[in-house]
Design a protein that fits this description.
It is a single chain. By secondary structure, this protein is α/β, with parallel strands linked by helices. The protein has helices at about 20-40, 55-65, 65-85, 100-115, 170-180, 190-200, 230-235, 235-240, 265-280, 310-315, 320-330, 340-370, 380-390, 395-405, 405-430, 430-435, 440-460, 465-475, and strands at about 5-15, 40-50, 90-95, 115-125, 130-135, 140, 145-150, 155-165, 185, 205, 210, 225, 255-260, 285-290, 295, 300, 335. The chain has 2 domains: about 5-290, HUPs (Rossmann fold, 3-Layer(aba) Sandwich); about 340-485, Orthogonal Bundle (Isoleucyl-tRNA Synthetase, Domain 1), CATH 1.10.730. The N and C termini lie far apart (about 55 Å). It binds ligand ME8. Ligand ME8 binds near residues 11, 232 and 292.
């Protein structure tokens, strides 16, 4: 039976329009999902929207519409973002769906039954923007003398009856989890941060609110709605059928990787495994957090209104260059400042010149000098073997990189081969061999076509549309584009379609970002 792989994005708040930051996390998760499918795994890839809570209720009020209507509208925009970015998600969960409410209430009942939820009274600071509670000691002083959350979000003093989750009781078991599963919180810098937070001691967590109503009702106590994070995190279970363990999707649990931004690592790496362990459920294998895209050094966000619009980028530069850029420019986990100029540079140098020209030069010679038929391989030279070996090693190299979400390293591995292929074509000069040694010319072009096939195959998850076009051009039938298919060479004599450029150079005006030129 094939291996299963379950990957998630955060479910996004429907308090404002999606932007490139959301697209980033989602594209990363999409690449993992596509890669695993290519590698023969059975994949479940989930994204969706987080529709409850005070933040959404306020945003709806500001817009003058009912929360559900507001949620419907913004959720559509996030579904639009999935389509825009070419996501291959298998489901899109909305926390206002009945299946989700059912799962939340069942999880609640289990936590109540195990004694991990008790009724008390909450008094403290709450930041609606973060949907998070803060201790007095965590607050910072704003320039105007007021108090704010460490994230800069305004806080309000809250005093109300509340149910609590006995988080304090889970400190040792959480630390034991981080010790025994070193990849559970990744990258490792985040792991140290989370471990020191947990070592510092955990307070019980307020998990219900009575001051507003836009949430999942607490079972048997309708004055309370569930704290939005308990509700939101449960989406990962509701989408695989929880509590129905007979659901065909249930075998996907536990998730292999939750890809999240570093702002929400604490919720995923501390609260979530504690909820799950308390409910007697297995915990996910990995919570991997990406860094920030910043604009002029500041985190892009809906609240700050400084975000780059994903639709503008896709319209201006094309989908695949944007997907490529997002994962190539910055090591996953680090922050990076966005600029159009950097995107244009990568598109023109790496996609148009390095890869696009390699394919174009090779395939136009096959069209002109080999009658458009896939040439036959001659006796292999040392150079042929070195290049082919490097190309054929790509599936396993990229697999290792993607197992650790090192997207930029995976792409660098592929580009090493592309650069080597460009050096090879310059050195072998098949255009000059045409008159002197046609058999060798055919051999060289055959090596190059094979290298392009390997490269395009492993790049499919990153740039699905362009790589499908490139694979069409090297004669790889859509049924034989998996990693395992690379073991079988394409038959010489195969008729190839007329070559067409896959990556045009960007020549227009690129406008946005600190170093746009
Ligand atoms: O936090 N750079 O939703 P959200 C990189 N509903 N990634 C960014 C980014 C940026 N500038 N801005 C946003 C929530 N993101 C909760 C999640 S999950 C059970 C509930 C990405 O709409 C990043 O992944 O505020 C971040 O964690 C997520 O969007 C936050 O989306």
């Amino acid at each position: 039976m094939s291996k299963r792989f379950y990957v998630t994005t955060p479910i996004y708040y429907v308090n404002g329009a999606p932007h490139i930051g959301h697209a980033y996390t989602s594209v990363a998760a999409d690449v993992l999902a596509r890669w695993r499918r290519l590698d023969g795994h059975e994949v479940f890839f989930l994204t969706g929207t987080d529709e409850h809570g005070q933040k959404v209720e306020k945003a709806a009020q500001d817009a003058g519409v009912a929360p559900q209507e507001f949620a419907d509208r913004i959720s559509k925009q996030f579904q639009g973002l999935s389509a825009l970015m070419g996501l291959s998600n298998d489901d899109f969960i909305r926390t206002t769906e009945a299946r989700h409410k059912l799962a939340c209430q069942e999880l609640w009942r289990r936590l109540r039954a195990s004694g991990d939820i008790y009724l008390g009274h909450y008094e403290g600071y709450y930041a609606v923007r973060d949907e998070a509670f803060y201790n007095e000691s965590e607050l910072v002083t704003r320039p105007d003398g007021g108090r704010a959350a460490p994230t800069g979000a305004p806080v309000e003093w809250v005093r109300e009856p509340s149910y609590f989750f006995r988080l304090s009781a889970w400190q040792d078991r959480l630390l034991a989890l981080y010790e025994s599963e070193p990849d559970f919180v990744s990258p490792s810098s985040r792991r140290s941060e989370v471990m020191s937070f947990v070592r510092g001691g955990l307070n019980d967590l307020s998990v219900s609110r009575t001051s507003f109503t836009w949430g999942v009702p607490v079972p048997d106590d309708p004055d309370h709605v569930m704290y939005v994070w308990l509700d939101a995190l449960t989406n990962y279970l509701s989408a695989v059928g929880f509590p129905d363990t007979e659901s065909p999707r249930w075998p996907f649990w536990p998730a292999d990787v939750h890809v999240v931004g570093k702002d929400i690592i604490r919720f995923h790496a501390v609260y979530w495994p504690a909820f799950l362990m308390a409910a007697g459920l297995p915990v996910p294998r990995c919570v991997f957090s990406n860094g920030w895209w910043t604009a002029a050094g500041e985190k892009m966000s809906k609240s700050l209104g400084n975000a780059v619009d994903a639709a503008r980028l896709v319209e201006t530069f094309g989908l695949d260059p944007v997907r490529y850029f997002l994962l190539r420019e910055v090591p996953f986990g680090n922050d990076g400042d966005y600029s159009d100029a950097a995107l244009v540079r990568r598109t023109n140098v790496e996609l148009a010149n390095d890869l696009g020209n390699l394919a174009q030069r090779t395939l136009s010679q096959v069209a002109k000098n080999c009658g458009g038929l896939l040439p036959a391989r001659g006796a292999a030279t040392v150079q042929d073997t070195a290049l082919l070996d490097a190309a054929q090693a790509l599936p396993s190299a990229v697999r290792d990189r993607l197992d650790r979400l090192a997207f930029h390293d995976a792409l660098e591995d592929v580009w090493k081969v592309i650069r080597a292929a460009n050096a090879y074509i310059d050195h072998q000069a098949p255009w000059a061999l045409r008159k002197t040694d046609a058999v060798r010319m055919a051999g060289v072009l055959s090596v190059l076509v094979e290298v392009i096939r390997c490269v395009a195959t492993v790049l499919q998850p990153f740039m699905p549309g362009s790589m499908a076009a490139m694979l069409d051009q090297v004669g790889a039938h859509p049924d034989v584009r998996g990693l395992a298919d690379l073991a079988t060479p394409l038959p010489p004599g195969l008729a190839l379609p007329a070559p067409q450029g896959v990556f045009p150079r960007f020549v227009g005006e690129a406008g946005q970002g600190a170093d746009a030129d």
